[in-house]
TrEMBL record, chain B:
It comes from the Bacteria. Keywords: Cell membrane, Membrane, NAD, Quinone, Transmembrane, Transmembrane helix, Ubiquinone. Coiled coil: none annotated. NDH-1 shuttles electrons from NADH, via FMN and iron-sulfur (Fe-S) centers, to quinones in the respiratory chain. Couples the redox reaction to proton translocation (for every two electrons transferred, four hydrogen ions are translocated across the cytoplasmic membrane), and thus conserves the redox energy in a proton gradient. It is a multi-pass membrane protein. The lineage of its organism: Bacteria, Bacillati, Actinomycetota, Actinomycetes, Actinomycetes incertae sedis. GO terms for molecular function: NADH dehydrogenase (ubiquinone) activity; quinone binding. This is NADH-quinone oxidoreductase subunit J. It is found in: Cell membrane. It catalyses: a quinone + NADH + 5 H(+)(in) = a quinol + NAD(+) + 4 H(+)(out). Its EC number is 7.1.1.-.
Length: 410, 254
């Protein structure tokens, strides 16, 4: 029995309740993650972070939110009013939509009804998340364009180029998972990870997804669309008050969404870590949410860690990395996965599979050695020291040359 | 009224309105947004008609990639630009009108042949093994040749666009900060390895056209930008030279 059939018989009130719960969870998580990010980054920079409002400063984000909402709402004279208002709305609605297909728990008892905390299970669930993300970019691009000023426009342009390029790498990293799971629905993908999580089986896909999800959400070190050192605030320079708050909310909900998708695709979603499978029956199945939540939080911590550690990439380096490294590596990896899958499906012997894997590993190692050699050679060539000409100004003779001269004299 | 028809009667008028409004918008970006909206509504209809894969692909490919590139170009054109109404290519207007008429005639004949009110046939059959699996079955068996030809065509088009848009690189080698730093130390002299000397700073004068004085009291040419030299905008340095110092030549001899 897969997720789709369990969800299918939900009465309307459960569907509505789930929708409200998912929405509330996202907003609450945003508040928490703003606080968490500030505290974690502060700790990494040997500061305290917000610790005044509420216990451990927990309500700081809420207080900031209220303050932000009460600020003056400015629409610049040069702005395109309709699009200026529309942009943050697009940004924030689409990122909430992504949560519709993500299972937050295993099978649970919801007021007497067996269900899963997942709004719907589409046969193309993962592609649906990609689609909402690609509409979400419109928010950033249109926001940048409609502000009617240069920095936001540049931010918007950067962001559109960035998201389109990294969406390709992201989409390709899904392919390995699809081939392995034989399905594009989130429920089936989680079910396919019952023995091994995909992070083990498809580690290259996981690594590429994690890199491109940072690029996709415009977060440091890939936050070129709002690089404050170069573009003031990037696409949201002209935004203030609630409209800015919506962009802010969208950014954090997006982080949670891509983390949740990573959890679903590679970390087994709400299933318990190996060896703790007995916990999934606790509290009528609701305990599985804790596992899901912990995995998402781990990704969130990783996001903050990156921000606290890495400097921002230059734009051309970022694009080069996406197109010349991530995408080709991904395509090669998909070929390997597809071949392995075909071999196992056609019942090839263990010997053939092991031989193929060994050959791939050897080929990768060989390519790396050749690359390193050529790199060392070019570096050596560049570092060859030409004989230094005699300086054109008087210098005291160096001890060695003095000794040499005396020898010559003798 | 079923959910599906409710969806249709809400979204279809919006889609038609948006597509008509798209034609009459003054700004190209507004038209692009409306077109994106029409594509999204079409995708929703596809999904409602049990073709989820087609619907999602419509959004990812058309709304996400194609329209985004469109917007990219439109944004580069500028906020206030409007289309020029002058016919740039001769006869394009008559060709456009002819094509539009031919296309609408084709559409009308096809739509006129449609029979309304008949129950849909074969949908369950087509989706029996799953929508995505059914499509994949066709794409990779019966239509694999057409699929490959189209992808080859697309790659050719992409390559062609790249060749046409490619411009020859200038001969001037791009230097990086690292290579410039290395070059400074590997050059004929390391006199300027730590950077060029700044311009002169004196009690009464402080400007970029005043040369700095070397230890022997002579003005340094290097302390003034090349441009100023070429323009002849360098201040007379004689007056800044120190008097009564022993002269030292380039070899460092007094």
């Amino acid at each position: 029995m897969n997720n789709a059939s369990i969800i299918l018989d939900d009465p309307t009130w459960i569907i509505v309740a789930k929708g409200v719960l998912v929405f509330a969870l996202c907003v609450l998580l945003t508040l928490l993650s703003v606080w968490g990010e500030r505290r974690i980054v502060a700790r990494m920079q040997m500061r305290m972070g917000p610790n005044r409002v509420g216990p451990f400063g927990l309500i700081q984000a809420l207080a900031d939110g209220v303050k932000l909402a009460l600020k003056e709402d400015i629409i610049p004279a040069a702005a395109d009013r309709a699009v200026f208002v529309l942009a943050p709305i697009i940004s924030v609605t689409t990122c909430f939509m992504a949560f519709a297909v993500i299972p937050l728990t295993g099978e649970v008892n919801f007021f007497g009804e067996q269900t899963i905390m997942q709004l719907t299970d589409l046969p193309v669930g993962v592609l649906y998340v990609l689609a909402t993300a690609s509409i979400g970019v419109y928010g950033i691009v249109l926001g940048g364009w409609s502000s009617g000023s240069t920095y936001p426009l540049l931010g918007g342009l950067r962001s559109s180029a960035q998201v389109i390029s990294y969406e390709i790498a992201m989409g390709l990293s899904f392919v390995g998972v699809f081939i392995y799971a034989g399905s594009m629905s989130t429920g089936d993908i989680i079910a396919s990870q019952s023995t091994w999580w995909n992070v083990v089986v498809l580690f290259p896909s996981f690594a590429i997804y994690v890199i491109s999800m940072v690029g996709e959400t415009n977060r440091a070190p890939f936050d070129l669309a709002e690089a404050e050192g170069e573009l003031v605030g990037g696409f949201h320079t002209e935004y203030s008050s609630l409209k800015f708050a919506l962009f802010f909310l969208a950014e954090y909900v997006n982080i949670i969404a891509v983390s949740a998708l990573a959890t679903t695709l590679f970390l087994g979603g709400p299933s318990a870590p190996p060896g703790l499978g007995f916990t999934s029956a606790w509290f009528g199945g609701w305990f599985s949410f804790i596992w899901f939540f912990l995995k998402v939080l781990a990704f969130f911590f990783f996001f903050v860690w990156l921000r606290g550690t890495l400097p921002r990439l230059r734009y051309d380096q970022f694009m080069k990395f996406g197109w010349k490294v991530l995408i080709p590596v991904n395509i090669a990896w998909i070929l390997v996965v597809a071949t392995l899958r075909l071999l196992t499906q056609q019942g090839a012997s263990q010997f053939v599979i092991a031989g193929f894997t060994g050959a791939v590993v050897l080929a990768v190692l060989g390519a790396m050695t050749i690359y390193d050699r050529s790199k060392i050679k070019t570096e050596e060539r560049a570092n060859q020291v030409e004989p230094m000409p005699e300086p054109s100004f008087p210098v005291p003779a160096l001890p060695t040359s003095l000794a040499l001269k005396e020898k010559e004299g003798n | 009224m079923s959910g599906e028809s409710a969806l249709f009667w809400v979204l279809a008028p919006l889609a038609v309105l948006a597509s008509v409004a798209m034609l009459f918008m003054k700004k190209a970006v507004h038209s692009a947004i409306l077109l994106a909206w029409v594509m999204i509504t079409l995708a929703i209809f596809y999904i409602a008609l049990d073709a989820p894969f087609l619907g999602i692909v419509q959004i990812v490919v058309y709304t996400g990639a194609v329209m985004m590139l469109f917007l990219f170009i439109l944004m580069l054109v500028g906020v206030d630009s409007s289309d020029s109404l002058v016919e740039k290519i001769k006869g394009i207007r008559s060709v456009a009108i002819f094509t539009a008429l031919a296309f609408s005639l084709t559409l009308i004949t096809f739509i006129a042949r449609a029979e309304l009110g008949r129950p849909s046939v074969g949908l369950d059959e087509a989706n029996s093994g799953g929508n995505v699996e059914g499509l994949a079955q066709y794409l990779f068996s019966d239509y694999v040749w057409a699929f490959e030809v189209i992808s080859a065509l697309l790659i050719t088009a992409a390559l062609g666009a790249m060749v046409l848009a490619h411009s020859e690189k200038s001969d001037v080698a791009r230097t990086s900060q690292k290579s410039r730093s290395i070059a400074r130390f590997r050059g004929k002299s390391i006199a300027t390895a730590a950077g060029l000397p700044g311009s002169g700073v004196y009690a009464r004068n402080n400007a970029i056209d005043l040369p700095a004085l070397l230890p022997d009291g002579k003005p340094s040419d290097l302390s003034i930008a090349e441009v100023l030299h070429r323009r002849g905008d360098v201040a007379e340095s004689k007056s800044y030279e120190l008097e009564g110092l022993p002269k030292i030549d380039d070899q460092g001899n007094k």
